[in-house]
Structure of dTDP-4-dehydrorhamnose 3,5-epimerase:
Amino acid sequence: MKFTPLKIPDVILIEPNVHGDGRGFFFESYHEKVFAEHGINDRFVQDNHSSSVKGVLRGLHYQIAPKAQAKLIRVIRGSIFDVAVDIRKDSKTFGQHVTMTLTAEKREMLYIPAGFAHGFCVLENGTEVFYKVSDFYSPADERGILWNDPKLAIPWPPLKIDYLLSERDRKHPPFLEAVHV
């Protein structure tokens, strides 16, 4: 596997070694020892899987301590525009974001450590996202940030259709009013 730190170095793009032939393909999407060798020591305890139509925008979500979550994001069908926002108050990159288009075709994964809000916009109908998290879902510790806060200036992709958001995601507070970790 190839591990590449992004503009915010704690967010890492992971490219697996894919072995393919006439029968199909095989790759390891997670290997605890290999991840640890690259500084990713989170213990993943829950897998989540979503399916969405084009234009669905999920986020920006996070959980606060003691239930903060690191995430390992992978697209298994279709494609997404993925966003991680640094909400760590003492970080040099506080308030900055990193974006990445993830596709099932490329099979790349994105590691997002605890202390980041996460969201994505679905670019194709029938897109499926599979991700691991390092702590269990906790409604009491769940928080969010308004997806289109001008302070963050996230360059969400134009899709020629309206974004589809949950009522909850429409009502998240702006970045400066959100709980930071």
Observations:
- Residues 49 and 170 are 22 Å apart (CA to CA).
- The longest strand covers residues 79-86.
